[in-house]
Amino acid sequence: MTEVLLAIFSYLIGSVPTSVWVSRYFFDIDIREYGSGNAGATNTYRVLGKKWGTFVMIVDMVKGIIGTSLYVFIPYYLTHEAARTNFMIGLGLSAVLGHIFPIWANFKGGKGVATLFGMAVAIQPIVALCCVGVFLAVLFFTRFVSLSSILAGVSFMVFILFIFNEHEQLYRIFAVLVAAMIVLTHQKNISRILKGTESKVPILKHRDRRKQRRIDDK
Length: 218
Fold this sequence. Notes:
This protein is 74% helix and 0% strand.
């Protein structure tokens, strides 16, 4: 019974609609009515700017960390590693479900990538850091947040299954489901990337200006 209550509490934590509340409180708009219509950090970054996009991303990650770490309230899981990992996966997925279908925002939330990452940090921080490296590298070279998220999610599966060779079966299944979910929830982004219409984040402007000047000089 306690496990069920903690899973519900994790869902409620995940349901905190960070981008929706930020957009309403500070800008008097609903972020879901602008940009891609998604209540996540990427759309917040595009519509409200880097500062608020970063803030939303961090809070959404923390939601995943806190929700996944609620196992500490049951002493049994502190000393049984396999059972703890399985329970953490269940708690983390509850938080991600809350982010995607938030009860505090009419069940219309984001794609859950940042909250998933927070969940991964809580369960296996080294793998999470490796995924951050993949995300940042792809973002640096392409400036597509969506593509960075997709490849980071796929790399999470690769790290778990092959590089770190995680033995816990449920965690291996979870890694495959994460990769599949991220790809499926980014279908529109993939289509826009292939069409050349996907928005890029405004980073490395100086590099782009220098590159453009060299092209113009030619």
